[in-house]
Amino acid sequence: MIGFLGEAYLWVKALHIIAVIAWMAGMLYLPRLFIYHCAAEPGSVQSETFKVMERRLLRAIINPAMALAWVLGLALAAHLDAWGAPWMQAKFAAAIALSTIHGFFGHWRRYFEHDDNRHSARFYRYLNEVPTVLMIAIVLLVVLKPF
After folding, report:
1. Given CB 3.0 to 4.6 Å as the disulfide criterion, which of 34, 35, 42, 107 pairs with 115?
2. pLDDT values of the chain reduced to their tens digit, one per residue, 147 residues
3. CB neighbours (10 Å) of residue 108?
């Protein structure tokens, strides 16, 4: 196996896929929690439960999974020396977009934490589709390498 990862390449690739799956699971679930949280009365037991669920999901699953996906993904890209490939540049842009949405999720979670949500359930319903579209684009770019 060429590249600096050597025999560890397949392990790094497997761990990257696992991290991405965990990241995506959280990115698909958190906006659903926001949708349900919109219907909860601020200060209610239900609202406080959603706050705990959202905080734990973000801190214990989504944030570490994203960090691991990035570290392992960059290692794989370096191993393959794929930086100049147009498909890799497009994948990188999509991963940055997904990370940006991740940042917005964290920002909006803090609004809920302070009972200051500024968006409707409909807003979060539409937003729930963004990680899915980005994930589809990333998978197609990596598997098909269309350009």
Report:
1. 42
2. 568 999 999 999 999 999 999 999 999 999 999 999 999 999 999 999 999 999 999 999 999 999 999 999 999 999 999 999 999 999 999 999 999 999 999 999 999 999 999 999 999 999 999 999 999 999 999 999 999
3. 21
Query: Could you give the angle at the alpha carbon of 25 between the alpha carbons of 14 and 144, nearest 5°?
Result: 55
Contact partners, residue 69, CB within 8 Å, separation at least 6: 16, 19, 20, 23
3-state helix, strand, coil in the chain (%, to 5): 80, 0, 20
For residues 60 and 133, give the distance between their C-alpha atoms in angstroms, rounded to a whole number.
24
- The parent domain of residue 17 ranges over 6-144
The tokens for 102 are: 């991740």
Classify residue 1: in a domain, yes or no: no
What is the tally of structural domains in the chain? 1
